[in-house]
Amino acid sequence: MKIAVIDFSSTSLSLLVEEVSGEMMIPVVGLRKSVSILGYLSKKGKLSERGIEKVVESIRYLMEAAVKVGSESVCVISTASMRIIKNYGEVVRAVKAETGLAITNLDGQAEAYADYIANREYAALGSSLLLDIGGYSSSIVDMNNSNRNSMFALDIGPAALFPRFDGMYPDKNDAKRLRKTIDKILEKNNVFPGQSFSRMILVGSNAEALYGVYQDHYSVPDSSLHTMERKKLKKLIKYLISSDDRALILIRNVPEKVHTLIPAAILAEEISQVYQAEELIVSEKGVKDGYLRLLVEENNG
Predict the structure, then answer these.
(1) The whole model's pTM is what?
(2) Taking the chain, what is the end-to-end CA distance rounded to the nearest angstrom?
(3) Residues of the chain with pLDDT under 50
């Protein structure tokens, strides 16, 4: 049996189809349509008519792709991106009318738990902190603690940090302010005070984009395990903040994230520094994978 989930995020809509056989789940198809809602939001936070059309078109395209490969069920989930849209109901109704699909909006804690479920094998490595860098929010999870109430969903992400500086890219002073903002949010929410972790597991398209730039900058050979060193990431951030050539490496690797890649990098490096994690591992699995796993476990239970 094949099942599919479409994830509506702040910068894209993505599809995951998996083959389910008992407890085995094998990825079959993964597709992504770049649709940044930032470009379609009014000052009052409403998604424009054209923005809604783009969302509907993309969901229809991904739904049809899922059906073509034999998916028996297709569901749509949304995370923090939907929670910031003021005309949420209008978007949901348009998607339902045009595709027949309902949108399940995950709250922050459900999103964090799905991340945990998707990546729980990393708990075997020992002391590991998971960070899902979303557009407007980020999930932070201690991989050795399965208690949902101990998982954090914070209103912080590269899209939320971007408006905090004036230019297209943050300068040195902007970076300092962003780091202070991140530290204050961690402290305010009492996120694992005084704890340290051996490594950090990075999740999401922003994490994948960051690794692409890191790999290009340091000429890292292709490998099935995508790892970064915190000290090297910090040096990369300094380069991205100060170099006249930064636009070239960003456009070459992440043209759809030229505005948000540097805030994402600062967020990842600052949190890894706070919790003394010197190794960062970029996971290929995220909310979609965890959500499908939860559906299967629910049905089998």
Answers:
(1) 0.90
(2) 17
(3) none
Neighbours of 65 (CB within 10 A): 18
Strands (E), 117-164: 128-133, 138-142, 152-154
Residue 159 lies in a domain: yes
Q: Are strands 12-21 and 2-8 parallel, antiparallel or unpaired?
A: antiparallel
152 contacts 141 by C-beta, under 8 angstroms: yes
Note the Cα 143 to chain centre separation in Å.
17
- Residues forming beta bridges with residue 153, ordered by sequence position: 139
Query: Is 300 part of any domain?
Result: no
Distance, in Å, from the CA atom of 37 to the CA atom of 23, rounded to the nearest integer, reads 36
**CATH number where 36 lies:** 3.30.420.40
The residue whose two tokens read 């034999």 is 70
Supply the DSSP symbol for 149: G
- Tell how far CA 215 is from the center of its chain: 19
The pLDDT, as a whole number, for residue 165 is 72
